[in-house]
Amino acid sequence: MGLFERDTEIYRDRDALREDYQPEELVGRDDELATYRTALQPVINGEQPNNVFLYGKTGVGKTAATRYLLTHLEADAAQYDDINLTVVTMNCDGLTSSYQIATRLVNEFRDEGSRISTTGYPRASVYEMLWTELDDCGGTVLVVLDEVDHVEDDSILYQLPRARANDNLSEAKIGIIGISNDFSFREDLSPKVRSSLCEQEIHFPAYDASDLQMILEQRVSVAFHEDVLEPGVIPLCAAYGAKDAGDARQSIDLLMKAGDLARDEDTQTVTEDHVERGRRELERGRIKEGITGLTQHGHLVLYALLTLDLEGEAPVRSRDVRPRYTRFTEMADRDPLVPRRMRDHLSELAMLGIVSVTERNEGRRGGTYREYAIDMDVDLLLDAIEDTVREVGIHQSVKRFLVDDELDHGDTDLSDFAPESR
Ligand SMILES: Nc1ncnc2c1ncn2[C@@H]1O[C@H](COP(=O)(O)OP(=O)(O)OP(=O)(O)O)[C@@H](O)[C@H]1O
């Protein structure tokens, strides 16, 4: 028998659970799809398209709905000889300026040999090139700007939708589809940009548990063999998804994690226990990612609070975290941040769900203050701030959580790091 053997007991088509899978139908989005379809109808009529703006939290189907409708629109437009439709889709993640967007767009229309560099041209001349490319392309051009909130200046968001009205285009009819999960972005747009970019706004609300259940059932029928899932598995994934953020991506990921655990264990069924364990694993991954993204001061603040928590001192006020944090910064050969910046780090840890915060009120004289405590698995946290701990040394109170080979104790003299007397 070979080293690798095909395992097909659980999955029929695991790829159907991946992000890039395009479902044939979108379930539970009838109203949004109907509004969206109406907004795109002028394209088929050969009229000037509407600019559409989609907004809603992450994983609620904005991109999936766009892909679904534009695939149909392109196929249907091909039936009409007098319609020449071009769709350009761009994700604005990593593109922060109008200039970058404009050069990228110019290059979308050009062959490899004649592409322009992304720096060095005056903005006005890049816009000129863009109008020329669009007019040369002609017909109807739909530009999809996904994650449009990454663009920090709104010049292009004004120029593109207004290009025809401003006489920059004579041949092409252009329509913009902006997509965003940042609610404040729309609010912060200047009125003139908002009125042109957001001609037709469509809000995608978060999914509830029964929506998610329908979405999961549709995926399961493609991805898994029949009767492989215990009856409670889909409702449990849906319930967790609805509780977290109403995000379809999270529910689908959880189902895939549960399926993978079942497959790794060579079992014939996916159980609720696989879902529970899968959820814990995903959670660990998310937290680890969140902590890894913090600065070293964030790690030092966390380590200070963690050791205090283990000594039974939490919940603790930030002024009581401070001496420990300051001491750790000295050990790491750094200057401590001012108290307010240190508190910002505690708030950030709270936002990540690593630290719990309790507001206390000492009555009229004492005012209100906040107390912090660790709200997460200790070994998970230690694992995530391993490098910082190594630099500062292993504090007495965390010693019992460390398996010898998990962290290199080296020659650290632990007595140096015994908790200070308070
Ligand atoms: N109504 C639905 N029916 C079937 N699958 C869906 C539905 N809504 C979302 N999904 C699936 O959930 C995942 C996330 O959806 P999508 O990428 O469209 O979210 P989004 O709102 O664009 O999120 P983001 O703002 O993070 O980009 C995709 O795999 C998508 O296929």
UniProtKB/TrEMBL annotation:
Residues 48-203 form the AAA+ ATPase domain. Keywords: ATP-binding, DNA replication, Nucleotide-binding. It comes from the Archaea. ATP binds at V60, G61, K62, T63, A64, Y207, R219. Residues 302-385 form the Cdc6 C-terminal domain. The keyword Nucleotide-binding applies. Belongs to the CDC6/cdc18 family. Involved in regulation of DNA replication. This is ORC1-type DNA replication protein. It comes from Salinirubrum litoreum.
